[in-house]
Amino acid sequence: MNIIKKKMNAVKQYFLKDRVNNCKVGGLETSLNPMQNLKALQNHTFTTKEIIHYSFLSSVWIFVFFLNPAPLLGKLLFYIMLCTLFIIPLTSQFFFSALPILTWLGLYFTSATFNNSYRRPISVKALPAVETILYGDNLSDILANSTNHFFDILAWIPYGLFHFGAPFVVAIILFLFGPPRLLRGYAFAFGYMNLIGVIIQSLFPSASPWYKNLYGIQPANYGMKGSPGGLRRIDEILGIDLYSTAFANSAVIFGALPSLHSGCATMEALFFSYVFPKLRPVFIFYVCWLWWSTMYLTHHYFVDLVAGATLSFTIFQYTKYHHLPKIINDPSLVNSASNIAKKIFHSRWAYSDLKYNNMYELDPLSRGSTILNGGISNDLEIQDLSGLTPNEIIEMNNFNNTTGGKNVASNTNSPFRVQTPMTQTSSSTVPSLFDAASIGSRSRSSETSYEDDVEREAMSNSTTLMPSVPVISMSGHSGTTAGNASTLSNSNSNSKTSISNLIGNFTGVAGNNNGKLFLKKD
Amino acid sequence: MFYLQSFLGIYPLYVGVELGLGVTIINKFSGLYGILALFTGHSLSFVQWSFYLFSFFALIVYSQGLYTIHTPKLKYFSLLLCVYTLDTLTNFFYILWFGVEWYTSNIAAANSNPSPNSSPDPNLNVAEKITKRGASLQSQSASLSYEFIFTATMTLIALVARLYINLMIIAFVQKMMHHSKYIVEDENDDVDLNLKNHNICFKMWFKLEKFCYRLCKFFFE
Fold this sequence. Notes:
The structure holds two protein chains of two kinds.
Chain A: H1 2-16, H2 34-43, H3 48-67, H4 72-87, H5 89-95, H6 99-111, H7 126-135, H8 139-143, H9 149-177, H10 182-203, H11 209-215, H12 231-238, H13 244-248, H14 260-275, H15 280-296, H16 302-322, H17 339-342, E1 370-372, E2 375-377, E3 382-384, H18 390-403, H19 421-424, H20 450-464, E4 471-474, E5 486-489, H21 499-505, E6 518-520
Antiparallel strand pairs in A: 1-2, 3-6, 4-5
Helix pairs in contact in A: 3-6, 4-5, 6-10, 9-12, 9-14, 9-15, 10-14, 10-16, 14-15, 14-16
Chain B: H1 13-35, H2 37-40, H3 46-67, H4 74-112, H5 144-177, H6 190-193, H7 200-220
Helix pairs in contact in B: 1-3, 1-5, 3-4, 4-5, 4-7
């Protein structure tokens, strides 16, 4: 028992060692009081995007309610159970965030019961034709041309094994090692990708390569059973019926386009690449491996894989710029040579604050972003201040010493600790419906209670209405710590003003600069 | 000349370029799998070989572009633009070539022989298990005209998307060209780089970048 306790403590120590004192940003909601969520819902102001989002998902649920052949009472009980899960804070943080995934599952299992008279005609020849025209040949045919037991096993591993467990494993890893709230983005992207995929599959049903191998180009019908394709050989090798019966009774038999195997693998790889950028080649290799095995096992044409991956990439890009918090070692936050940037894995509890991706801040063509020490800085213009007189530099340092420590958090490793509320307002954030703490774009580093959150919400709502304020920043990059970056807020936008005059108007925070001194001005 | 100002009229141009490059890279993996035909004994024609090899080369160029989209370099994106434009032009040719080949081998053959592949695999027992789910099984399959429209629409979508991405990259490079941040101060920095000490690939790459940059400069300035 002692050994287990020691191991548990070691794991706990590993994850919590970088945690900032009294910081709840990485914590979970433990309340069971539904009033908390109801109050948050009452205070929530819906944006246009949210209205579209919830209207779309609601319409799918209404569609599922009327078309699913389950007993009416059973359906009502299921919907009541879902609403209950959504309204209790402890469960809503998981289930409400997973709403797109739940919607996809609801539609997927209902789609198997659609009346044949409502179904669209099955395409048999279009996909191989498109593949030949766009990619020069039927690539899936090329790869399934010669088979052997070694390749069978090699293809089975990602397609038949990893694919089904990977979404859960990825979710757990993202939860532990990604920034807080990343999992919500993953649930959003993963759910929408599959949901849109199933809708396309239902609207444009298409036969897989195994169909052509079995039936040639003869017309297909919905009375046909599915086939395990190349996975039949795995059943033969293992001597068990692992896939033959399961695929024969598959819910979606003619759902070749788009490949959700490809979509899921791509989405997992994209999220992993986002959180662990240094391991990107490994994830790309995994997607390539799965693509090969999908074609080798005659389950999809190459064009299906491309469609699935394109769908994933498109939704990921949208999610990245609208929902995902920046990782702790994002190039725009830390110097590429710092210890934080070098480290691959960071626990979610290492985050003391969240900063979201803002596509307008990151725009390389805007006048507000510049390459700086391998990272991106949001300067309007950079000037080398090495030519300043000693008195001016001393004056700046004095100012730094008197004001610099105010907003600095206790964790010296955190690149988020020097961000001021002013810079936070420029970032887009993704408030959840039941998430009073994330409304606006303010910092979550110092949040203490639900009541405080509601109060802050009102404040952040008011700050987001403020016109953008010019920001003057001094950035120093020592190469070892990220805490050198500092921001000075200025209400004077005259770029010709002298440094000394500008300092007199500063209302924000300054940090020390060990390296070259730069001035950012608006 | 008309240049796009934004992606879909809403998003910054680089978001569209990023998305477009990502989608193109996904497509360019076809080169990798086409080359794998070497190991499966499938014979490829010269046109197919050239298509797959060029796809593989383009995959490398676009990947580097996607990787540096937030910190772009004008010379590299000039090269990328030239490669992408060449890719678009050759893609029209390839689609035409492969389309004609597909037509002659499938449609023409189907006309001469109405049911060339109508007999199912004799070893298959799945066909025996067919159970009727609809009244008219024949109506559940797509007609020839539906298949043709489906094929033509998908091909057309691919072409239009490619053209749009190309226009976005053109606009992106054009804007970089006129942006003070991306000014190339010394075009003839061969001496600074001391090209003599680098290998032939680096020299060729460097010269290609410079050529593409001058070409873009000629058109955009």
